[in-house]
Amino acid sequence: MLFFIGLGLGSAKDITLRGLEIVKHSKKVYLEGYTSVLESTRVEMEELYGREILIADREFVEQNCDEMINEALTDEICFLVVGDVFCATTHCDLYLRAVNKGVKVSCIHNAGIMTAVGCCGLQLYNFGRTVSIPFFTDKWRPSSFYDKIKSNLQVGMHTLCLLDIKVKEQSIENLVRGLKIYEPPRYMSINTAIQQLFQIEEEKKQGVLSPTSICVGLARVGWSTQQIVVGEAQKLLALDFGEPLHSLIIPACDQLCDIEREMLEHFTLK
Amino acid sequence: MLFFIGLGLGSAKDITLRGLEIVKHSKKVYLEGYTSVLESTRVEMEELYGREILIADREFVEQNCDEMINEALTDEICFLVVGDVFCATTHCDLYLRAVNKGVKVSCIHNAGIMTAVGCCGLQLYNFGRTVSIPFFTDKWRPSSFYDKIKSNLQVGMHTLCLLDIKVKEQSIENLVRGLKIYEPPRYMSINTAIQQLFQIEEEKKQGVLSPTSICVGLARVGWSTQQIVVGEAQKLLALDFGEPLHSLIIPACDQLCDIEREMLEHFTLK
């Protein structure tokens, strides 16, 4: 049996009672260690759960997870995922590989960012599709997220922008040379996201984001140090939101209901 | 201090360790009792949490919650919510009333349906806006959800349809007479949702749902008896999904990625 267990967004204590029970009784515990970060360290988790935790990095999950799947044919194995279980495609892939090998799979849900953003007061019903904003490089400046935000705005929908995470990435040089040397982790800040949006705006000029557009910056949702700040894009650009993870919402401001408006005022930069 | 604590979707054991700690130490524990249902009864929750749980019905939350807010000025009070905390507008309203009275508010997230639906294998990134399908009456047959599904499909997006819940509702007769007599709770089934969609389709004829359109029926997501069935609308219409709660997804089938397609096949009615 393979258990996919969501850990929620904040600390080790955000595991559910059901999740913890399974972790305690299982033979081995793996932690998916590349799509997100928790407030707690692995050591804190090991102490709280009373179990050794093996880190499954991207390579492990995408290439070498056969061992884990084979173990799950005969034993109870846990695969811990920050947030909820199926926010990343990779986990569906792992799920399919397991069931196709005859492994039983069970899923323990937990908080995920796409629902938790409701804490800023914008109604989840009023969100269009979620976008990802990737780090620009000198040569690679995709802009499809800009078009998606625009099409959400056109139908009066807010957009949640998830910001890029680069963990255990190789430089192109090292990749070409086959050297397994990894760059330090990078997490996109709200500031960088707004900067990149301004850059695309300057090229496309389709009125998605002006310096005075109202945005919602969310840092460390679900952590003890969570921050929600509402303000003009140019003002958020100058603000230090601290540690990752950051997210950004571009609200459809002309479509806000009274409660949304009041909640945004509550979080507005004074 | 007022704690909003998400309970997740399934059993009493889906509370997080952090949530349970707060419940155990707080002065009073209220349970929001009208927007959703859990697999566990209140008695099971009281046993597991070791606390008396007071039911806060819609009337209480919308009209008589001043008492709870006043208590939270001096004591630690918990307000338990099935799913995640801010999926319903009412809770933002309660949040605002509390902070406007000077109460500190804290929020413990948990699994919500809008993220948990990822368990069917459709990628959350590929969902457009979520819609609600309300029970039709003889005179009231709104169709805005049909238009929203259509506009999601036009841009290649899946639609999550949340199905109506009627708890502690008065009949119009009793409402007019001021009699506080409540109808038995009603939860819309996947079958009724598809039926109503067919009815609107017959009127509008805009090709949103044909008898052979592929749909995803989800029953009791996060429960031990969870069911996910993929199949033609006309086939799901004839299927008994059992107990509530039910949800329905209308996928944008011509836009599926390989993993989505493979996951849907895995859940396809054989």
UniProtKB/TrEMBL annotation, chains A, B:
Superkingdom: Eukaryota
EC top class named in words: transferase
Query: Which CDD domains does the annotation name?
Result: DHP5_DphB (cd11647)
| InterPro entries the UniProt entry points to | 4pyrrol_Mease (IPR000878), 4pyrrol_Methylase_sf (IPR035996), 4pyrrole_Mease_sub1 (IPR014777), 4pyrrole_Mease_sub2 (IPR014776), Dphthn_synthase (IPR004551)
The positions making up the signal sequence are: none
Kindly indicate whether the keyword ATP-binding belongs to this entry.
no
Residue ranges occupied by any Tetrapyrrole methylase domain in the UniProt entry: 1-236
Q: What is its EC number?
A: 2.1.1.314
GO molecular function terms noted in the UniProt entry: diphthine methyl ester synthase activity
- A biological process term (GO) from this entry: methylation
| Reactions the enzyme catalyzes | 2-[(3S)-amino-3-carboxypropyl]-L-histidyl-[translation elongation factor 2] + 4 S-adenosyl-L-methionine = diphthine methyl ester-[translation elongation factor 2] + 4 S-adenosyl-L-homocysteine + 3 H(+)
- Asked if the record carries the keyword Methyltransferase, the reply is yes
- Which terms are listed as keywords in the entry? Methyltransferase, S-adenosyl-L-methionine, Transferase
Pathway annotation: Protein modification; peptidyl-diphthamide biosynthesis
Listed binding positions for S-adenosyl-L-methionine are L9, D84, L163, V221, H246
Q: What does this protein do?
A: S-adenosyl-L-methionine-dependent methyltransferase that catalyzes four methylations of the modified target histidine residue in translation elongation factor 2 (EF-2), to form an intermediate called diphthine methyl ester. The four successive methylation reactions represent the second step of diphthamide biosynthesis.
Task: Give the similarity note.
Answer: Belongs to the diphthine synthase family.
The protein, known as: diphthine methyl ester synthase
The species this protein belongs to is Streblomastix strix
